[in-house]
Amino acid sequence: MRRVELEATVRGEKAREVFDALLAWERYPELAPHVRATTVHRSVPGEGGSSSWELYFRSGLLSWSEEEFFDPGALRIRFEQTYGDFDEFRGTWQLRQDADDVRVRFDAEFDFGIPSMEGILDPIAERVIKETVAWAVTGLFPDVTHQERLTPRTPPGKSVSPVVSATAEDTDEHAENTPEG
């Protein structure tokens, strides 16, 4: 299984407010250019939710539906694919108040179930997922820093967010996942 990890610090915010904002899956298409669409089937209030996602991936779409489990007391969101293009896909968002800032950690594991293609598909999917999370967190809050410097690639036909920039060469769908750090 391939792992995706991303850590960010949201400066000057309260953890519960960051938690609530991250759950606004319907906003992700406007925040992250890789996201073509999200459909929220069920969300807060409640202990769980359900949503469907479509991300631009190579020359097509990567899509799945997931169940989400919300634990506001532990500042944790857990998700697991119920149907979609992955053979397996699951992960967590974990938040922690750190003085005036909030530490956000995203961890996910995925497997397409196609061993002969993992060398091609996995690095691209890892980059797309990681960049989607980075764009969303950066778009939701005015002051965010990421543990590693990312150079997001914008999918063809999508506009670039004013918060994070990309160059024309960053849209090459065959480029390797090479975040600068």
From TrEMBL:
Any Pfam family: Polyketide_cyc
Cross-referenced InterPro entries: COQ10_START (IPR005031), START-like_dom_sf (IPR023393)
Origin superkingdom: Bacteria
Organism of provenance: Streptomyces albireticuli
Gene3D superfamilies: 3.30.530.20
Protein name: Cyclase
Region ranges (Disordered): 147-181
Transmembrane parts of this sequence: none
Residues covered by the Coenzyme Q-binding protein COQ10 START domain: 15-133
